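Page 37, top half.
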Amino acid sequence: MRHYLYKTTCQANGKYYIGVHSEKRPTDGYIGCGIVSMGTAISLKKRGVKSALIDSVVKYGYSSFKKEIIGFFDNKGDAYKAEADIVNEDLLRNKMCLNVRIGGIGGVVPSTTKPVSLVDCKQNKIISFKSQSECQAFIGVLNMSGKSRLCKYRYVLAEKAEPIRLFDRNGESVEFLDIFSCRFILGLSIDKVRRMLSNKMVSVGKGRVVGGDRYWSNVNLISKSRY
């Protein structure tokens, strides 16, 4: 992965945007604010993401923007330091600048500065981040706006999680922060878990789960209870 500081310019009016990006391949098409194509710009705008760059791309078209690399860096932290030297309050007052906040702290869309908490379904634990930008960098996505489940259902926004409680044969509860934790930790398909939660018979391996009167011999789980 390479980290760099870039400048994206609208060839129709000369307005520009400066940002930091980390990419795994040199042709990902990223030009800023989560935009990698005309389609992503339109999608972000429909989701209500506020950004002068997004509005400009929707107006003039993705092909009207040219990105140039200002410099490459060994890590993202150094790239942000360089961005902070350029994108300051004086630059933000320039009408030709499309940035909406000072550089050096990651992200440019106001909505990405809010704290975010995710449930890691593989670990059955909550992970908290100071901002959406920090969260996106951690899980490796360009933009998570408008999404509740990410990375093939491994992560889910904490406020969108579906916590469940199952019981073993002794009546002891087994709690999961989200229904997909059963998929990752116990190897149960979501369809089977949902059928368990609705008290319907489910065939699982050599055993069966039927409401609260039988158990799955391999995992000792029975019954259900949402909370």
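Page 37, bottom half:
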Amino acid sequence: MGMRSLDWLQSWELQTFDLLMQLRPNEGIDKRILLVTITEKDVQSQSAQERGGSSLSDRSLAELIAKLEPYKPRVIGLDIYRDRAVGEGYNPLAAWMRKSDRFFIICHYGNPGVNPPPEVPSIRQGFNNVLSDADEVLRRHPLAVSSAFPCQTRRERVVCREYCECNSIWRARFFQRY
């Protein structure tokens, strides 16, 4: 017991945990989830002036969402920081963000943090901060933080809660907002 309390076994335990995680059987791709990625080619297809140093202009993001809308997605989670207007087309995008109850966005708590757009209510905001272990491996992800920052719940938890509610999946206490 003394060796464990002094963390002498920690590196061995973490290596064993990592190995066991790699040995898990492949669960396959979940066909209910569509991941839309933005490649470097997509970024370069816009002028630098249009995207204003960002990866995607507001106009391009609005076009992307318009292409997704006919498929009636239950949840749209944007994993791009959007704390300011980028290029032209912000007003229609802002109006859509305000009225859509399926749109979720990320923020970054801390100092300095990245605020979410003011058009998205706090119930549809989630942080994406991660914690590295001493060996610089990501094994832990906080689910919630007590902070003065607007985003206090993890992005995945917020999106999962909405998806479960849309599909009438029983809500456990885990999904309730604290």
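Margin note: The beta strands are 76-78, 103-107, 125-127, 131-132, 138-140.
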